[in-house]
Amino acid sequence: MNQPTRKRFSKSIIGAIAVTVLIAGCAEMSPTQKGTATGAGIGAGLGAIIGGTTGDGGGKRAAGGAVLGGAAGALIGNIWSTRMENQKRTMEQATQGTGVQVTQTADNRLKLEIPSDISFDTGRSDIKSNFRPVLDRFSSTLNENPATTVTIIGHTDNTGSDAINNPLSVDRAANTRDYVSSRGVASNRFSVSGRGSYEPIASNNDNAGRARNRRVEIYVAEAQR
Question: Can you name the CATH fold of 95-222?
Fold first, then answer.
């Protein structure tokens, strides 16, 4: 590849990356639109790389590869985002009336917001009886959407020391995973971790705040292929 061609090739890649970064920050776009456009940007960059490094006429091949890669990436991004939006609606219907909120994160994952009245007791990691119906319904949505992965993060309030809270937060995440797995969801779809008391979402100065902090955060994402 000669010097002018190399410059055009580099500009194609940089342009595709820049577009992708700008898209990710667009608050006005729906998740499906973001997924489609982000996929197009990534696909264009990869298409430019492939096109520019194969055969003669690197500049033209880079441009052609960017167009084809962008189209393919847009299609994949749209399919991916649409599936996640469909699962969001399914999960909202399944958890209706439980107090669980289903939101979609900026990186197109689904997050389950668990209400404090079904959170964990102080110093305990066992699944409370009123949390089980929620997890039962959640398990059903996962079984209906096998091409997703689940991340569960456990948290505690600030009662006790790190030596107690850090493993306790992991136990809360692991027990949640084990319960859902017992409902037929493959255990290899899960990853679990604990954050101890380091990421509170409410004040630890009263019982209501501490109850909110004793929680698990559950994220659902499309499996990477």
Answer: 60s Ribosomal Protein L30; Chain: A; (3.30.1330)
